[in-house]
Design brief:
This protein is of the alpha+beta class and 756 residues long. Helices cover 52% and strands 18% of the residues. Strand 2 and strand 3 form a beta hairpin.
């Protein structure tokens, strides 16, 4: 039965090519989910206008969903990834898709900027011609007989042209049977404008021309700032999309041909010259160079590349020329995967966002009810009259617009995910960020995470007349041609220290024991304890050092002449330097650290003691790792699991937050909520720090937005009027615009967080 459900569950990505404010988008989500049978979930990313819809294909389909959204008055289309991929080539799809969203938001920003400027130009004469303003400021504008006519014309331009985006939005909302902020704004402006026309031509009463003009000016200005915020918040994502160069150097039949990057296929050979961008993901087949990968992985230092090493599209070749063989194109490239992960994270919603959505959903209805009650009370039960009652009603409609509430969380989400991506941390689901701030335990897989995952030299202990360099130099010469893991570790250490290779004579491999060779007439042996016994050498003088190294779970190799032991070389899975700082940073954040490993207890105990871990689990089989996570969870701890995303998959899934580290360019790790592109455990502490900062900003914004409405609506309704306090519509519009700017500004302050 479960398999049938899974098979019938489909998803569609719908692009809404219309202005959809954040506060209105949540209403649209509820509408799609509630009114289309078979829709399981619907989520809109306000930064891209993309709605991800999951549905049961046995009950509905893409066509029905598109038809419903269009009936609601919105232009929309299905984002056809596969068709676009085929038609436009490989890398163009991502750029086309993102540019479409960026251009739409830019267009909307320009429209609101234009309406702001025009509203501002015409509001000035409206204010000068208004008798109320003249009285307040002691102005005396001569009446040429057509002042009232000009007042009506200028305010009509503002009310009809300046506020037109809200009317369009209100029509769509009413078609969708949704009461949103567009409906509120339209009610406020139209009611005030029509009443003013009536007072001019039909009956004698005060007008609202200057109030309505300033109201529209502040509203369109607020939306202009909102669109700037949305575009700015997704700026880092825009830069990622633009990393891929438009052209590449294709090597074909010995010639270099400049081609469009979109024409590149898997298997093509490309030439990357110094200073050029790597066009697409591939593997170096010729040449050596250093590549700046900071824009993808966040790694600050250039990374050396040689034959067989992988390179990432969008990175910059700094020194030598190289040839690469293309291995990935289109949606499979690292950059495309990163963009999709960031975009999905922006669309995912933590509990805080859902709370804000619910509040915005009900706020409009509450405002309309309060507005009607306000007019009814002041007009029907007091002697204040229709003008006063209408003024307060308009003020309620304006002050209750849920702009700040709609922007409060999405802006923080967008900034947080793009900030994380710039630092090599890819958030797949914002729920993980919400949980990460409350973590009690971080559990690391040992090999390749806390340690290098390479069998390397950890100690060189000299005896008698040889020093550490003498020992390593001779060991290097004896082990250079061996494929044994111990030999490889010794050779790697010698190369790391730039040790010169000595000439060895009469080399001989001694099966099961080691090897020997002659250096300048002296026989030198390297091998295990069995070899020492075969040579009848006394090991008592090295016993203490041997026991110390063995107690740390290290493998010990002897190096000796025919007459005496000259030194010991200890090898182990080397603890990474970054691991020490990682553990210290996590403990400063009040988080306990544990380790899982399949190694023996002696090795695990040494690593745990060396790093100062709170606990460790040794001799754990891959299938048992998740049970250790459960063990901590049963004690009431919130647990994050850090692993490589392959053999740690069950534990990553079981943990409250699964973090894949060391994934490199393979960012599509299904079992983890967070992917760390760099193989750096220090990013765990950075992630948690960012999580705490993100959730702090979300709560601050939510508190401000809800608190603002809670206090402002009663004041707008006139509860303080008996004490001489009244809020005019234009001031309400200014406060409303200011509240939106405050939450956006507060969200942008997240960029100041110090992650290092």
């Amino acid at each position: 039965m479960e398999n049938k459900i899974k098979e019938s569950t489909k998803s569609v990505e719908v692009y809404i090519n219309d202005y959809l404010p954040p506060a209105s988008s949540c209403n649209m989500e509820y509408r799609v989910k509630d009114k289309i049978k078979g829709v399981i979930s619907a989520s809109i990313n306000p930064n891209t206008n993309l709605m991800d819809i999951v549905f049961n294909s046995q009950e509905t389909n893409k066509e029905k969903i598109i038809t419903f959204i269009k009936k609601c008055g919105y232009k929309c289309s299905v984002s056809k990834k596969e068709e676009a991929h085929k038609e436009m080539g490989h890398t163009d799809h991502q750029e086309m898709k993102h540019e479409k969203h960026e251009n739409h938001h830019t267009m909307m920003m320009k429209e609101f900027r234009r309406k702001t400027l025009i509203s501002f130009i015409f509001t000035i004469p409206v204010l000068l011609l208004s008798p109320t303003i003249q009285k307040w400021f002691g102005l005396s504008i001569p009446d040429f007989g057509f002042n009232t006519f000009l007042l009506v014309v200028f305010s009509s331009i503002i009310a009809l042209y300046g506020a037109s985006p809200f009317y369009r939005g209100a029509v769509k909302s009413l078609k969708s049977r949704i009461l949103d902020m567009n409906v509120l704004v339209s009610l406020a402006v139209i009611s005030g404008y029509l009443y003013s026309l009536g007072s001019t031509f039909l009956f004698s009463a005060a007008d609202f021309y200057w109030e309505i003009s300033t109201l529209v000016l502040f509203l369109v200005f607020g939306h202009w700032m909102e669109m700037r915020a949305i575009i700015g918040a997704s700026g880092a994502l825009n830069e990622l999309v633009k990393l891929i160069p438009p052209k590449a150097n294709l090597v074909k039949d010995g010639n270099i041909i400049e081609v469009e990057t979109s024409e590149i296929k898997v298997g093509d050979i490309l030439l990357i010259r110094p200073g050029e961008k790597v066009a697409i993901d591939g593997k170096v087949i010729e040449g050596e160079t250093s590549i700046d990968e900071s824009m993808i992985t966040g790694e600050s230092k250039p990374v050396s590349k040689k034959n067989g090493d992988e390179v990432i599209g969008g990175t910059i070749n700094e020194s030598g020329s190289i040839k690469i063989k293309v291995e990935k194109v289109g949606e499979n490239t690292a950059l495309a995967q990163i963009i999709n992960l960031v975009r999905n994270a922006q669309a995912s919603k933590p509990k805080t966002q859902k709370l804000a959505d619910r509040a915005a959903h009900y706020l409009t209805l509450t405002a309309i009810i309060v507005g009607v009650l306000t007019f009814t009370y002041w007009f029907g039960f007091t002697t204040e009259g229709a003008v006063f009652a209408l003024t307060l009603t308009i003020t309620v409609f304006v002050i209750a617009c849920p702009h700040a509430l709609g922007l409060a969380i999405p802006t923080v989400t967008s900034i947080s995910t793009t900030l994380a991506a710039k630092n090599g941390m890819l958030i797949k689901d914002m729920k993980a960020m919400e949980i990460a701030k409350n973590l009690d335990y971080v559990v690391f897989d040992k090999t390749g995470t806390l340690t290098k995952g390479e069998f390397g030299v950890s100690d060189i202990i000299p005896f008698n007349d040889w020093n550490a360099d003498d020992i390593l130099r001779k060991a290097y010469a004896l082990e250079i041609n061996s494929e044994h893991v111990i030999a490889k570790g010794i050779v790697a250490k010698a190369k790391e220290k730039n040790i010169n290779l000595l000439k060895v004579e009469k080399f001989l491999a001694i099966s099961g024991k080691g090897a020997k060779g002659i250096f300048e007439g002296e026989e030198v042996y390297i091998g295990n304890e069995t070899l020492m016994k075969f040579l009848e050498l006394d090991t008592l003088n090295v016993k203490n050092e041997l026991q110390r190294l063995s107690s740390q779970g290290k493998t010990v190799v002897y190096i000796a002449t025919k007459n005496q032991i000259k030194g010991l070389i200890a090898l182990s899975d080397i603890i990474r330097e970054e691991s020490y700082n990682t553990v210290k940073s996590l403990k400063k954040l009040g988080i306990k650290v544990a380790m899982l490993t399949g190694d023996n207890k002696i090795t695990a105990q040494y690593v745990a003691k060396e790093l100062g871990l709170d606990t460790y689990f040794a001799e754990v089989l891959p299938g048992e790792k998740s049970s250790k996570v459960v063990q901590l969870q049963k004690q009431g701890y919130k647990v994050a699991m850090v692993g490589d995303g392959v053999n740690d998959a069950p534990a990553l899934t079981q943990a409250d937050v699964g973090i894949a580290i060391g994934a490199g360019t393979d960012v599509a790790v299904e079992s983890a909520e967070v992917v760390l592109v760099k193989n750096d455990p220090r990013d765990i502490a950075r992630l948690i720090k960012l999580s705490k900062g993100t959730m702090r900003k979300m709560k601050q914004n939510l508190a401000w937005a809800t608190g603002y409405n809670t206090i402002a609506i009663p004041i707008a309704a006139g509860v303080l009027y008996p004490y001489g306090v009244i809020l005019q519509p234009e001031y309400a519009a200014l406060i409303m615009a200011a509240s939106s700017i405050i939450v956006v500004f507060n969200a942008f302050m997240l960029k100041k967080i110090k992650l290092n």
